[in-house]
Specification:
By secondary structure, the chain is an alpha+beta fold. It is built from eight helices and 18 strands. α6 links the parallel β13 and β14. It binds pyridoxal-5'-phosphate. The site of pyridoxal-5'-phosphate has 14 residues, from α6 and β15.
Length: 340
């Protein structure tokens, strides 16, 4: 079957709704992964008793590949993403795909779908997905010994199609996004756990996201890490199990060091945040949007502007520096790009 690719249409569609026609698949059974196959993108067939549907044995990754000026395609930090997937699978007691296998699946998949990779500012969003398929509702307290691992590829346009807009956040100093021992797993349950709070905040305050700061400890939003920035330094929370260890976060910190910023990874209190944003900048980091400037924070019913309420100059500078590496306009000093 040949599918004519209408990339123009694909990148106009809402983020993450259009997929390439092939996906790389491997299944885990009897202690081993099956040879990688390229299968048509189509509905899955699962036993209704599949472990994932009852006990949420699932995790995923989110990363990108970028078209370079010579027409080739390169992934961004694929090793870090595959390492994180391996770690998430471990936290969920799922069979852990070795990073080398996951990498091969992604490369094989992209090679078979090269015509689907848009030119910048578009990119190919990559969503490796792992689910527990053991048909047993009796396995509430035991792992799924069978699993399905597949790669979704989604051509995406510029995340900020109409230009970046300053974000509005509700600062919630009471709620947890997820259980503190599980924040570093990239797993559906954590999103489910945060969703109610996010929906409430959207209704009440028309915000984009909730910034979770339980007991005044500023952690992250529902789907992105949080950074305080000014002309001199970047401050973000130190890594522990309570939040997702973003690869964009790490990349921004690395680039910031290269550019001479002082990088501080430590606890951030609500008081410090409120003090910082009188003059400084705040931003969210994640693969999809890279670095989004925060314009307004709502705290205890009060709307507080971050600086002048616009996206800060340092935020824009760091975002552009990372994009320049991804799209091949500046030197890849840290070996992040890998040609497919
Ligand atoms: C994926 C994710 C991030 C961002 O991680 P990146 O590796 O930068 O894309 C941040 N927070 C949560 C909860 C996430 O799921």
């Amino acid at each position: 079957m040949t599918v004519s690719v209408n990339l123009e249409e694909a990148i106009q569609a809402p983020f993450g709704t259009i997929f390439t026609d092939k996906m790389a698949v491997s299944r885990f059974k009897d202690g081993a992964w099956s040879p990688i196959t390229l299968e048509p993108y189509q509905n899955l067939s699962l036993p209704p008793a599949a472990h994932v549907l009852h006990y949420s044995s699932t995790c995923f990754e989110g990363m990108k590949a970028h078209r370079q000026s010579d027409g080739s395609v390169s992934t961004f930090r694929i090793d870090s993403h595959m390492k994180r997937l391996h770690q998430s699978a471990g936290l969920l007691c799922l069979p852990q795909p070795e990073p080398e296998m996951s990498k091969k699946m992604i490369r094989d998949n992209i090679k078979a779908c090269m015509e689907w990779v848009p030119n910048p500012p578009g990119s190919l969003y990559i969503r490796p997905t792992l689910i527990g398929t053991l048909p047993s509702i009796g396995a509430a307290a035991s792992p799924s010994t069978e699993a399905l691992f597949y790669i979704l590829l989604s051509p995406v346009g510029d995340y900020f199609r109409t230009g970046p807009k300053p974000l509005r956040l509700l600062l919630d100093d009471d709620s947890l996004r997820t259980a503190p021992h599980f924040g570093m797993a990239k797993t559906g349950g954590n999103y489910a756990s945060a969703l109610g709070k996010i929906m409430k905040a959207r209704q009440a305050h028309n915000v984009n996201q909730v910034l979770f700061a339980p007991d005044g400890d500023v952690q992250e939003t529902g789907a992105a890490n949080f950074l305080l920035i000014n002309d001199r330094q970047i401050i973000t929370r130190n890594l522990d199990s309570c939040f997702l260890h973003g690869i964009t976060r790490d990349s921004v910190l690395t680039i910031a060091r290269d550019l001479g910023y002082e990088v501080s990874e430590r606890a951030i209190s609500v008081e410090e945040l409120l003090d910082h944003i009188k003059e400084g900048e705040a931003a969210l980091s994640g693969t999809a949007a890279i670095l989004g400037g925060v314009g307004t924070i709502i705290y205890k019913g009060e709307e507080i502007k971050v600086g002048d309420g616009q996206i800060g100059a340092n935020t824009n500078r760091l975002r552009q520096a990372l994009l320049d590496i991804q799209q091949g306009r500046s030197e890849d000093k840290h070996g992040w790009m890998e040609r497919v």
